[in-house]
Design goal:
The protein is α+β, with helices and mostly antiparallel strands. Helices cover 45% and strands 23% of the residues. Strands 1-8-3-6-9 form a five-stranded mixed β-sheet, with no helix packed on it. It is elongated, with a radius of gyration of 30 Å.
Length: 216
């Protein structure tokens, strides 16, 4: 519902909020018994784990010791030989699957780049520094009034008031910090800021024509 701004969407969001509170209350009521049952299950699994591992190693050892073409012919041929070694095959496939899964998540984590940010902030709360890539449009949406903007850690003020949704493109890698005007009520009710990478919507802002460096 983060991108739903209709009246019906907002009402549905409120209903989801109350439903979430109800689920949290129910969860808190049943949490002690749940954790107790989970703890007992973990104790049972841990207690039986050494025995299970020992039995598996014994079976795998016996399978390995009885390998060979002449031996398995006496016990039903290739089908029996294949079934007898299903445990080894299962362990091998499980190891390959876990290895590929771990590699995939590691690769995705290293190559992942965030392209959308939605931040809710309160009065006097600092906002993160954004790194805008060169020649890529960025769309900014906020209902908060922007007091000034830091471009490469130098403060600039707007030449005029921007629209609620505006976009901007910088020729070089640029570090951006937003300074928003806030009043006392924003200590309780926060304001929101949304930033999209590689998206050009709303009023087009030209840099540096629309900004003036603030001199103190």
């Amino acid at each position: 519902m983060a991108t739903t701004y209709s009246f019906a969407g907002k009402m549905f969001s409120i209903l989801l909020l109350f439903a979430s509170i109800g689920f949290i209350i129910i969860g808190l009521i049943f949490m002690p018994s749940f954790w107790w049952e989970l703890l007992k299950l973990i104790i049972i699994v841990i207690a039986s784990l050494p025995k299970v591992i020992k039995n598996e190693f014994i079976i795998i050892k016996q399978i390995w010791q009885n390998r060979g073409l002449q031996k398995y012919k006496l016990f039903g041929g290739f089908i029996f030989y294949f079934r007898l070694r299903q445990r080894i095959l299962a362990f091998l496939l499980a190891f390959i699957s876990l290895s590929l899964t771990a590699w995939f998540f590691t690769y995705k984590q290293q190559t992942y780049e965030k392209t959308y940010w939605k931040i809710k902030f309160y009065k006097n709360e600092p906002i993160q520094t954004f790194t805008f890539k060169p020649n890529i449009p960025y769309t900014i949406k906020t209902s908060a009034y922007m007091n000034s903007i830091l471009i490469n850690f130098e403060e600039y003020e707007k030449m005029y008031d921007f629209a609620e949704v505006w976009c901007i493109t910088f020729p070089d890698t640029t570090y951006i910090n937003f300074n928003f005007y806030a009043i006392g009520i924003h200590e309780v009710f926060g304001q929101t800021l949304e930033v999209w990478e590689n998206k050009a919507e709303g009023e087009k802002i030209y840099y540096p024509l629309c900004f003036r460096r603030r001199i103190r």
